[in-house]
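[recover] target loaded
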């Protein structure tokens, strides 16, 4: 009953603001567009929009169908793109989602090597998700999810590819720079700078500070690694970074990295894929290459 053309008409009317503009966008006459929707309304037994002057107002049923159009059409368009790529003997695009801000620097090593070896594949990296990275993976919006915090789900397989340790990074002028390791109470007079992630998802809070009933004097967030490290370098705060990333920056900035607690906070970068995709060669090739990066100098 519902066809793609119906969904496209509703989406374009909403985007363009009028039937005339939507018809032009879809290369239809206004009468053909209106006839298509009237026929649909007759089939479903309710109106989808009302005209008030020159403005169109969607009914409750129309708004419901519009929301479905906004959800379904991008998925269908992605199917069209994939089929077109196969028809043109192209291997397509590997869509990667990131749930780890500093992992982007790690990804550049892997992606550069991957693109060099697989000339027919493009990479698309997504860092923001409407409903989270796991939802994007399950809904086939991405092919691989890069995350340090895998979640056990039957249809998803997570492959650990790169171990690292989270370190406290401080200015060489900060009093903490003289310490060999950091205890939770050492941060009670410090400004902690992190990426814009909720504290309940940050390991420094969940694995280090909260269990010791400690808090930093102030918690500040910044978007980029570069800006965070610049602030730390001039002693405007301290931050948490993977040891490999901090080691790179120590060569050019007046900063020092210090272990958190006696045992440290040890993590692994995981690549999550749909279990049904585990045999796909271009996905497995990316995972294999990611594992090789452990032997490279960071």
């Amino acid at each position: 009953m519902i066809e793609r053309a119906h969904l496209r008409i509703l989406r374009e009317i909403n985007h363009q603001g009028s039937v005339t503009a939507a018809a032009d966008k879809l290369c239809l006459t206004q009468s053909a567009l209106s006839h298509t929707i009237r026929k649909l309304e007759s089939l479903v037994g309710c109106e989808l929009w009302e005209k008030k002057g020159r403005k169109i107002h969607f009914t409750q049923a129309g708004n419901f169908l519009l929301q479905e159009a906004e959800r379904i059409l991008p998925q269908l368009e992605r199917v069209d793109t994939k089929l077109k790529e196969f028809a043109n003997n192209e291997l397509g695009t590997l869509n990667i989602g990131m749930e780890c801000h500093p992992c982007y620097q790690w990804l550049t090593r892997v992606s550069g090597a991957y693109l060099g070896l697989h000339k027919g594949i493009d990479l698309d990296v997504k860092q923001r998700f409407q409903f989270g990275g796991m939802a994007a993976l399950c809904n086939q919006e991405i092919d691989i999810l890069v995350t340090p915090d895998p979640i056990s789900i039957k249809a998803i397989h997570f492959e650990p590819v790169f171990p690292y340790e989270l370190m406290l990074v401080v200015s060489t002028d900060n009093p903490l720079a003289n310490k060999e390791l950091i205890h939770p109470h050492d941060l009670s007079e410090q400004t902690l700078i992190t990426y814009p992630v909720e504290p309940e998802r940050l390991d420094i809070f969940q694995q280090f500070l909260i269990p010791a009933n400690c808090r930093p004097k102030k918690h500040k967030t910044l978007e980029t690694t570069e800006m965070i490290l610049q602030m730390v370098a001039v002693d405007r705060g301290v931050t948490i970074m993977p040891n490999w990333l901090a080691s790179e920056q120590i060569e050019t900035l007046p900063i020092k990295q210090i272990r958190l607690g006696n045992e440290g906070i040890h993590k692994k970068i995981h690549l999550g894929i749909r279990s049904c995709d585990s045999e796909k060669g271009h996905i497995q090739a990316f995972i294999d290459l990611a594992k090789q990066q452990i032997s490279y100098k960071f």
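[recover] notes: The CA atoms of residues 17 and 153 lie 42 Å apart.
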